């Protein structure tokens, strides 16, 4: 599948290789730096035309070179500009030294900067390649700027954000706007980097797209381009018998609401038929709340085994309100040869004995999606969750390989990862989506997509995106019930 540059995520290491490939192909690297710096100056002028002064903070590498280009361009436009540098600008090398020489402005030591009212800071200290804590002197400047609430335009990534993980390395500017080049980096979309980057602008500085694509791994920002080719069967006009049969398994008498939310979401999201499998003691309360969703008495493993004789029953959701324990484990192991969304209690039941589940998934050939939030992930994959050297993307990828399942690692920066290494990061979810029952709704949407024949990775990615869009439509007062009401057709 072909993706546009705006869909791609490129790691800092991949970007470094892309830059080298561009230089090796004969592209003048200084012309790329000029394009980057000019893009930054244009963004600063566009966003802050009434600025009293642009203060450009330049680092000791190529990010600083972008800053010197931007400073000269800003001054050439008639703006008031001051340049502050970290280290001795005379020690710059290569393109950064050339950019400094072309900048006719004087340079002041970074530590002397004191924010003033009307300043706009252009942060060109460190870019996406930062992989160590910032020097103390830089951290103090950042704290000074953040405390002053002076707006910041960041070059590539706010200084202090690790471009691979999105984590803060000691301190970070809280940018109003970030200009990056050719493709977004993981640090732009993973928290807290996403929040600290402000609005993100990806600017094409002239590296051929083929060079970017040749180095980029299969890592994307989640959106319709990832799964559109599989969404044709989800059209509202498709006959119900061609849209699959989704079964959601309910918990006991006092724990039925979560499963009903999943079932309702599955029906709205497009499953042709939805049945709630309920133990006898909860059948009456479930029946009193169901209309279009059908009801089936499923209380024991024997009941489930009998039901599974119907091969038209192709997809299950197990976990929402189901209860933790042996019954959940037994049911899950019986369902691994079908399409299965293992959520909440279904996952937590395998905190001990997860190897049996992972082996069963590998052997059974079904399509299994697991949907852990941070706590569930730490319980199911303790050694992966404890590895602080890994980004959230990398943790999800490792968990997917271990489990042989598609992992939906939930949060404000939900990551969907496949055992093959494919991964997407979702960026459309509003903060208010973190409401009670929201995860149950997501499980139902994933189930609906699986029931209609979407592959597990695309089914999960599309559901996460659709869930976020429902949150936006439902608004700040969203509840799980209103999320269901606001599930719209896939584009």
TrEMBL record:
Binds 1 potassium ion per subunit. Gene3D superfamilies: 3.40.1190.20, YjeF N-terminal domain. Residues 223-491 form the YjeF C-terminal domain. Transmembrane segments: none annotated. Keywords: ATP-binding, Isomerase, Lyase, Metal-binding, Multifunctional enzyme, NAD, NADP, Nucleotide-binding, Potassium. The keyword Lyase applies. Residues 15-213 form the YjeF N-terminal domain. Pfam families: Carb_kinase, YjeF_N. Homotetramer. PANTHER family: ATP-DEPENDENT (S)-NAD(P)H-HYDRATE DEHYDRATASE (PTHR12592:SF0), ATP-DEPENDENT (S)-NAD(P)H-HYDRATE DEHYDRATASE FAMILY MEMBER (PTHR12592). This is Bifunctional NAD(P)H-hydrate repair enzyme. It comes from Sinorhizobium glycinis. The lineage of its organism: Bacteria, Pseudomonadati, Pseudomonadota, Alphaproteobacteria, Hyphomicrobiales.
